[in-house]
Amino acid sequence: MRSKKLLIALFLPLFSFAGGQEIYSENCEKCHGFSRQGSLGLPLYRSTIANYSNDYLKKTIRHGRPGRIMPGFNLSEAQVAKLIRFLRAGVRAPQYSNETIIGDVDAGKYTYEQYCQRCHGAELQGGEGTGKNFSWQKETVKYRHQH
Which CATH superfamily is domain 2-88 in? Predict the structure, then answer.
């Protein structure tokens, strides 16, 4: 009996998002990538998904993101629920640190220009695609640098 419970506990997560991977492959993979690494659409890493409520994800999947490249999809409630369970599988909330990170400014600038600027804009103001406005972070960086 004990081994039965253990098997159920081990394999239940696999069945809880059954079908979600197929829905992802058919509808999301073209823009978000096979491994959710992003391409035309933003990355859908499990740690990123942890930041969004189920309601936000549901609205985004069903209606898209107005003014952005993300379209809405005509999926049933059950399909949306399966997709969200699949995206959340194994999700852990990101761990943040207040430690100062020392990095290579030139390498960071190059990386931003190559991979981020198209959607987030040259001044972090937001732009085409899914890029949010992150210009408020410039002041945070300036403040930390000065203090």
Answer: Cytochrome c-like domain (1.10.760.10)
